[in-house]
């Protein structure tokens, strides 16, 4: 068993929070374990809970089509969520649930070691930058803990509010150039915590 399979097994047997009581299946994540890009959503919904895969319902269709729009398939990236079990009636995850599940997400980030983490919606953005406004900060890459965080709207938001779709499409168009920029950064600069410097270097944004 490799490290990734161990994380998946631990998630499968997890009873750290009450979400474990209502789940059909755990939803650890899907895609390439060596991906340069990791997407982090919020929580599994009904379809995800049934299939054990993230983003396979209506929001997943939006994500898959946005990926296709920039020439990527799901298997080119890694996709996961803040919590790995479905909250009842798709309610927002509670802070204790986010906290209980964070060990798994942290282990996934460490292991997969993506160049860019795309946060989808306010919960995953809040993991890295608590209290910031997603509508103000979306599309602006930021350095955090030696990684590049690229906040975007949640794909489900465009289902409720189609006027957000152009912004999401625009942020997707900038994703691959951003990954190239991060790859081109000297290692010391890639871990620089000074946002001013990062913004200067990532001039196109
Ligand atoms: N499906 C997921 O897997 N995550 C979300 O955040 C929404 C739908």
Proportion of residues in extended strands: 5-15%
- Note the gap between the termini: 41 Å
Arithmetic mean of pLDDT: 93
Contiguous runs where pLDDT drops below 50 for at least 5 residues: none
Radius of gyration: 16 Å
The number of distinct helices, counting runs of at least 4 residues, comes to 12
The largest sheet is:
6 strands, mixed
Main β-sheet, spatial strand arrangement: 1-3-2-4-6-5
Count of DSSP E strands? 6
Structural class: alpha/beta
Q: How much helix, percentage-wise, in residues?
A: 40-55%
Bound molecules: uracil
Could you give the order of the helices and strands?
Answer: HHEEHHEHEHHEEHHHHH
* Shape type: globular
Key attributes of the depicted protein:
alpha/beta, 205 residues, 12% strand, 12 helices
How would you characterize this protein structure?
The chain is α/β, with parallel strands linked by helices and 205 residues long. It contains 12 helices and 6 strands. The chain has a 6-stranded mixed β-sheet with strand order 1-3-2-4-6-5, with helices on both faces. The radius of gyration is 16 Å and the shape is globular. The model has no long low-confidence stretch (mean pLDDT 93). Bound molecules: uracil. Residues 41-45, 48, 54-55, 57, 59-60, 81, 156 line the site of uracil.
Topology summary:
Layout: H1 3-12, H2 19-22, E1 30-31, E2 37-41, H3 46-51, H4 58-69, E3 78-81, H5 95-112, E4 116-120, H6 122-128, H7 134-137, E5 142-144, E6 147-152, H8 155-160, H9 165-173, H10 175-184, H11 187-190, H12 195-201
Parallel strand pairs: 2-3, 2-4, 4-6
Antiparallel strand pairs: 1-3, 5-6
Helix pairs in contact: 1-5
The site of uracil (URA) has 13 residues, from helix 4.
């Amino acid at each position: 068993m490799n490290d990734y399979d161990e994380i998946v097994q631990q998630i499968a047997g997890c009873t750290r929070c009450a979400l474990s009581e209502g789940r059909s299946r755990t939803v650890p994540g899907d895609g390439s374990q060596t991906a340069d890009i990791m997407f982090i959503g919020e929580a599994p919904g009904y379809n995800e809970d049934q299939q054990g895969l993230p983003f396979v319902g209506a929001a997943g269709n939006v994500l898959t089509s946005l990926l296709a729009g920039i020439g990527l398939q799901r298997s080119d990236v890694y996709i996961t969520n803040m919590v790995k079990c479905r909250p009842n009636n798709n309610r927002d995850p509670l802070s204790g649930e986010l906290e209980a599940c964070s060990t798994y997400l942290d282990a996934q980030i460490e292991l997969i070691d993506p160049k860019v983490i795309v946060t989808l919606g306010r919960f995953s953005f809040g993991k890295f930058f608590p209290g910031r406004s997603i509508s103000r900060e979306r599309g602006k890459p930021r350095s955090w803990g030696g990684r590049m965080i690229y906040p975007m709207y949640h794909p489900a938001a465009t289902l409720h509010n189609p006027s957000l779709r152009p912004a999401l499409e625009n942020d997707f168009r900038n994703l691959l150039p951003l990954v190239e920029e991060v790859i081109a950064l000297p290692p010391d600069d890639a871990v620089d915590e000074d946002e001013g410097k990062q913004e200067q270097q990532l001039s196109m944004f």
